[in-house]
Amino acid sequence: MKNPNQPALSVRAADLSLGETTLWQNLDLEVSPGELIAVIGSNGSGKSSLLKAILGQQSLTKGQIKVAGHNVHRGSRDIGYIPQHRPSEGQVPIRGRDLLRLGLDGHKFGLALPNHKNSQRINEVVERMGASEFQNQPISSLSGGQLQRLRVGQAVIGKPALLLADEPLTALDLNQQHVVGELIDQERKANQMAVLFVTHDVNPILDMVDRVLYLAKGKFKIGSPDEVLRSEVLSELYGTQVDVLRNQGRIVVVGTHDHEHHPDEEWI
Amino acid sequence: MSLNDILGRLFNFADYGQLLPLVQNSLLAGALLGLLGGFVGIFVIKRDLSFAVHGISELSFAGASIALLASIDVVVGSIAGSLTAALLIGALGAKAKDRNSIIAVLMPFGLGLGILALSMYEGRAANKFGLLTGQIVAVDEPQLLWLVGITAAVLVALAMIWRPLSFASLDPEVAAARGVPTRTLSIVFMLLLGLSVAASVQVVGALLVLSLLVTPAAAAIRITSSPALAVTLSVTFAVVSVVGGIMLAVGGGLPVSPYVTTLSFLIYLVCRFIETLRNRAKGAQ
After folding, report:
1. Domain span including residue A146
2. Taking phi first (over 0 means left), then psi (-120 to 50 degrees means alpha), and beta for anything else, what does residue B140 get?
3. Is the Cβ pair B166, A83 closer than 8 Å?
4. pLDDT confidence tier of residue A51, bands split at 50, 70 and 90
5. DSSP annotation string for B26-57
6. How close A151 gets to chain B, by Cα (Å)?
7. How is domain B3-277 classified at the CATH fold level?
8. Would residue A49 count as lying in a domain?
9. Do A107 and B180 touch (CB under 8 A)?
10. Do the chains contact at A106 and B167, CB–CB below 8 Å?
11. Reported pTM
């Protein structure tokens, strides 16, 4: 159960190397309940691997990770997870509501029999996600934004201590990016849920970010957006001249030579 | 043969009242297989395992043929073949792409082995043919017992893992993050699938297993997205196909399998037709 004094996530002296490549070294990160951390970095900098390590699906080279005070071994009910979205092919017999229900009790053995208490909780989340209109439609017929709202609902319905969201805004239009970002923000505030928000573009969520974890070249920087997203800080991190430009409240990072907007490349 | 003669052979209901009691065992076996196929088929579709069903059935055929040659119980042979195939496919082919090539590698090997064993077998020819195309009319008591046992075991196990298996089938990444043992479930389901295929091979034959374990579920998901309704329809379609097929075939003395496969195919066509009509109606709004 949630203890307000206990960090939702604590990463201590963690190293992760995949083969010859060191993704990050000596990573220390403590996330308080309700805190939202934006995880930013180049492709292959180990953002998705960090999430896998927190989920216990990727073992660390060194160090320790605890979620809500517990070691995680192959998944945890304290974690809500929104993986990068890859469109599913073909037809599956499942509707929006069913997706939410899986988040609530899909891990339990037995049949999925009707259950009053569950239905109430599902109704509540349907409403919070603004999904009343399409909750009974087959998920194959939903738009990207509608589906993503349900995936957020599925991840938060069990009131996890920590939400891991891996590029939850990619492939959405600006309006839907805003809606989905707001939903995640609303849920973390309502439930004191910590959030690790992996993104290649910090702008859509800039005003809700508490701290930024910037991963690059085997190194990292943690701090408030104003502390980390500065030319001298990122230049040092990358070891080359990087410019952080601010224009009308938006932040643009120039000179990192990243080929971004290719979520598929994250999986190397 | 004139068209009338052909029709007369296909559908012959003379002495129907006397024939029906004789095929009681087969009807019972058919109903059990329908249940099995309808329930298991839903997960075959959800987990994209249609091709695996075909691969497993060929190895089940090999096992049965070798058992026939070695004078062991054919059911034991077909279960052994099927479980071996299911485990190999489950262990080596976690990813869909790998899986398809592994199945394509195993399938001809199994079929070849089966043909070899059958060529060396010197018993009744009907036994040989039956393994490929089914022998549902000749279901005897021990076979029926096997079938009852397998059906009960598979359905009970499936009921126990229903929820996490549904979760893992729809979204393995999220399920694993929530602590669902996706890898174990996948192996367990392959075993259940292996048993179901072995049971079906006994009755409808290795070549026609797909019509019970894939077609009814594939038809059901064309017309509903409700998980509960999809299962109900899938089971209904499968039972109607087998039991209906047997009842139509009884009079003519021809093999049962073509009747079963045709019925299940027709149901599939009707479902696709309904789906198209509905989509048009939606588009017109």
Report:
1. 9-88+96-267
2. beta
3. no
4. very high
5. HHHHHHHHHHHHHHHHHHHHHTT-HHHHHHHH
6. 10
7. ABC transporter involved in vitamin B12 uptake, BtuC (1.10.3470)
8. yes
9. yes
10. yes
11. 0.90
